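Cross-check.
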Amino acid sequence: MDIYTIIFLALAVFIFIRLRSVLGQRTGRERPPYDPYSRDTARPPQPAPDNVVQLPERNTANPGMPQPVDTDADADEPPKYRWDGVAAEGSPQAAALDEVARREPDFDAKHFLTGAKAAYEMIVTAFANGDRRSLKDLLSKEVYDEFAASIADRESRGETMESRFVAISRADLVQAVVQGSTASLTVRFVSQLITATRGRDGAVVDGDPEAVADVTDVWTFARDLGSRNPNWKLVATEAAE
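Predicted model, tokenized:
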């Protein structure tokens, strides 16, 4: 053996002795190895990543048992009548509403009544203000001509009209008819209004600007079923007692 071989062997023996002196020692604090399949071995706790949402803990009162499922107490009850609160079941109005819904599946009678109330207030206010432009979009030609003539007559006398809504307490469907492609729905409105008409000199010639009056009107709205225009127009008016 040459001198270099002897030197490398001596160096290897020295390194082996040093490693064993460090790795081969036990301090008594070593953790037992983790067995992922052992039920008795607790896995060392690991910090949860910041982007993990912790789920709620399960109910352990009855482990292994399925959780109760909420049931609808009214599941056995018959389906609610579709025109409830609008038209009596089996009435001519209900039959007409069924026909409207058959032709236009998105039709909603309660939504229609809500829109009719809004249209009623807009029309009454526009008439009092002499707003012909707004009226033209909401009325049929025949009704518009009557309203426009009344406004012109009032203006010719130099009179002005004031009208303020306090409330619309009721809007009830009283008649529904489908003739050909046209549906006509008649609504009775019960409202509270403050209305007065003043002459040229500002004096009140009709109504009372300080009193609330109960007003009942019966109006009929119509539209062509299947039309791209979804708006209903006022086609007839009637004052009711």
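Helices lie at 3-23, 92-103, 109-129, 132-138, 141-156. DSSP finds five helices and five strands in the chain. Passed to J.P. for a second look.
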